[in-house]
Specification:
The complex is a heterodimer of chains A (117) and B (117). The termini of chain A are far apart. In chain A, 0% of the residues lie in helices and 51% in strands. Chain A is mostly beta strands. Chain B is mainly β. Chain B has no helices and eleven strands. Classes of the chains: A mainly beta (117), B mainly beta (117). Chains A and B meet through strand 11 of A and strand 4, strand 5 and strand 9 of B.
């Protein structure tokens, strides 16, 4: 069974600074997908960024980028120029790529990120 | 496009009552996933349904919980004889695909917070 571990329950950073959230996972699959989701106080789950394991290039989306280390099974999220609106819970998630169409996600326990004005 | 609609947003039930949670997927989406989020935890997969079929219910508790996705109408997660431990946020996500591009089009609703008193 796949597991996802987020070892930082809480983090805080000054506005405009850069912050990195850690995530490790365990799987025996060779191909899979990794995700970072943001959950603000509204409770809505918002996809931040997605990485396909067979792609060596790290995914980027504007101020968000990942450091994907497949051999180490590590998938960290870097937020540059942090903004107050980035304050939220952040969840790392995993999905198998060949599960007969089943896209169920395995989530970590989350990191509560606070951006300080 | 109204997105994935979940209702009610908040639901309070007394111990022993039944809870019915509804999820209307996005237009054109025929795949629905239900997740449960206990306080201060990540989301945990419960069940994956396609129209009129349960595909994967490996995360569903063996008793009191059931789910359906009829040909017409929303998907329903039903919890019979609720207990305090059922208090959680319940999310559904819908997808138009059967795993062809994981995460692409996968959209979460805003969740139903169930409180059992």
């Amino acid at each position: 069974a796949q597991t996802v571990t987020q070892s930082q329950p809480e983090m805080s950073v000054q506005e405009a600074e850069t912050v990195t959230l850690s995530c490790t996972y365990d799987t025996s699959e060779s191909n899979y997908y990794l995700f970072w989701y943001k959950q603000p106080p509204s409770r809505q789950m918002i996809l931040v960024i997605r990485q396909e394991a067979y792609k060596q290039q790290n995914a980027t989306e504007n101020r968000f980028s990942v450091n994907f280390q497949k051999a180490a099974k590590s998938f960290s999220l870097k937020i540059s120029d942090s903004q107050l609106g980035d304050t939220a819970m952040y969840f790392c998630a995993f999905s198998e790529s060949s599960n007969f169409g089943n896209e169920k996600l395995t989530f970590g326990t989350g990191t509560r990120l606070t951006i300080i004005p | 496009n109204a997105g994935v609609m979940q209702n009610p947003r908040h639901l309070v039930r007394r111990r022993g009552q039944e809870a019915r949670l509804r999820c209307s997927p996005m237009k054109g989406h025929s795949h629905v996933y239900w997740y449960r989020q206990l306080p201060e935890e990540g989301l945990k997969f419960m069940v994956y349904l396609q129209k009129e079929n349960i595909i994967d219910e490996s995360g569903m508790p063996k008793e009191r919980f059931s789910a359906e996705f009829p040909k017409e109408g929303p998907s329903i997660l039903r919890i019979q004889q609720v207990v305090r431990g059922d208090s959680a946020a319940y999310f559904c996500a819908s997808s138009p695909y059967a795993g062809t591009v994981a995460g692409n089009g996968y959209t979460f609703g805003s969740g139903t917070r169930l409180t059992v008193v």
